[in-house]
Amino acid sequence: MKTPAKFAIGLTALVVLVALARLSTLGPTAAPESPPPPPPPPVRTERVFFISAQIHENSGFNVSEIRVQRGDHVVLVVTSLDTTHGILLDLPWVSISNTVPPGQTERVEFDAEQTGTFTIYCPNPLCSAEHYLMRIALVIE
Fold first, then answer.
1. Model-level pTM greater than 0.85?
2. Residue 98 and residue 89: Cα distance in Å, rounded?
3. Alpha-carbon distance 25 to 93, whole Å?
4. pLDDT in tens, 37-62
5. What DSSP string runs through 1-58?
6. Nearest by Cα to 41 from 84, 17, 77, 73
7. Which domains does the chain have, with CATH numbers?
8. From CA 109, how far away is CA 47, in angstroms rounded?
């Protein structure tokens, strides 16, 4: 006849065997998946452009187009050659309006955060009769 202690040990062994058998049918347990790593930030390149400005009748801005990549840090070094000119740029993420007195140079900086084609203007409507033609296309790819 079995004693209660032997019966308890036998019952415990049976429970352990059943539990192990049950675990073996479940297959390997997978570790919880970690989220994928974030994408690397876009390569940030500093792009410097030297712009000279004079009344449009004498050629206006020396460049008609500036092309950069999204994420670039853009630096415009603007020199006014004859009268007050400057840079007027109204982007969805930043608005810039800088005037440059004659014979001086100003530095304008911004990050190219969004793709598209934008227009850089001269902010001084009195610079010349053809002021409205003083434009630079800013293309962010």
1. no
2. 9
3. 57
4. 887 766 679 999 999 999 988 889 99
5. ---HHHHHHHHHHHHHHHHHHHHHHH-PPPPPPPPPPPPPPPP--EEEEEEEE--GGG
6. 73
7. 46-140 (2.60.40.420)
8. 10
